[in-house]
Amino acid sequence: MGSNIDNIKLDIKNPAVAKQFSEIIGAMKGFRIIKPADTLKPDLQIFEINGTHEDLHQIQSGLNADKSHELFLTSERTDPETLMKAIRIGVKEYFPQPIKRSDVEQALKQFKERRSHAAPVPPKKSGKLISVIGSKGGVGTTTISVNLAVTLTEQDNDRAVAILDMNTLFGEIPLFLEISSKYHWGEISKNIERLDETFLMNVLSKHSTGVHVLPSPGYLNGHQALTPDIIERLLNFMKRMFDFVIIDCGQSTEDTALKIIQMSEEVLLISVLSLPCLANTNKLLRSFIDLGYLRKERIKVVLNRYIKKSDISLHDAEKGISHDIVWIIPNDYGTTMSAINSGKPLSHIAPRSKIVRSFEEMAGIMFPGKKTESKKKWGFFNR
């Protein structure tokens, strides 16, 4: 049977109504009605309700158990409250009885369109969560998140990489990549019960480099906040779909951000060579470790905008925070600002620059892939 044939299951008690649906579906190409005893999974189920809560409970249980199919409803009685509840749990179409042939035909055509335009679902993976958190505002967490994600993708085209922006109101990742996102994680937080791979891929925006982006809402009102439970469910889904999920946490230390940090395989703590910033870095390190959120070895301190002739030496910085600085990113204000203002990754602006080479080495050594195995030892470079 061709893959363009969609299986429909009829769960209709009224024989006359069931016959009418069968005749309409049978006259249309690309559909097959499956018998109740058939082991094939339906792509679409048409269910007759009598307007009771038991019906809705059964519908919701069915949708939760198998999110791969759509559901249409039909009923002899129209109850606006019941219909509204049905829509909220994911029902796509409703046909009052007596049914109109044109309504059913139109709904089936729209169903076909949704199926044909559905985003492809990638194979299951076991990805890594990498959190990027700043020791204070303005240290470059978004620059590092975006360019690390792009570098990971450019070094291995087989990788699936996503960025999640947790900077509510001030999230700037779409600007850094010059993309216009129709959706943000607020769409997921208010529809968490509908979350599956297809839904998530349709919410994500894809950049030309191959990186998928899940932006923040960019405003304070009109969305449901991400709770620790919701973010855990979302990130577990993303881990199964992507090799790397880069989370730009900004400077947040509220409950949801702490949950993200707990779940992350690696936490990049971004600092610069200034006393206030190093003091904050030390406080965050002590807090994460002493409160049991992270083991020390999972925290990687990354020094951004490094200038060799700084008033504070690297040795003094490490001594002050009692922690190794595992990577340094050189200061290149001109190239960085040019990339930000043009909405392009650094590698597209100055592919041979020191700062791009630093990201390439960092990605290749911290997160080596099949095409980026490096013989260099872990440590500190460009001292």
Model regions low in confidence, pLDDT < 50 over at least 5 residues: 373-383
What is the CATH top level name of the largest domain?
Answer: Alpha Beta
Any idea what the CATH superfamily of the largest domain is called?
P-loop containing nucleotide triphosphate hydrolases
Category from helices, strands and their pairing: alpha/beta
Total number of strands: 13
SSE order, one letter for each helix or strand: EHEEHEHEHEHEHHHEEHEHEHEHEHHH
Overall tally of structural domains: 2
The number of helical elements comes to: 15
Strand order within the widest sheet? 8-9-7-10-6-11-12-13
Ends distance: 63 Å
Short description:
The protein is an alpha/beta fold.
Structure, explained:
With 383 residues, the protein is α/β, with parallel strands linked by helices. 41% of the residues lie in helices and 18% in strands. It has two domains: 6-117, Response regulator (Rossmann fold), CATH 3.40.50.2300; 128-366, Rossmann fold, CATH 3.40.50. An eight-stranded mixed β-sheet has the order 8-9-7-10-6-11-12-13, with helices on both faces. It has a five-stranded parallel β-sheet with strand order 2-1-3-4-5, covered by helices on one side. Mean pLDDT is 86; it is low at 373-383. The protein contains 15 helices and 13 strands.
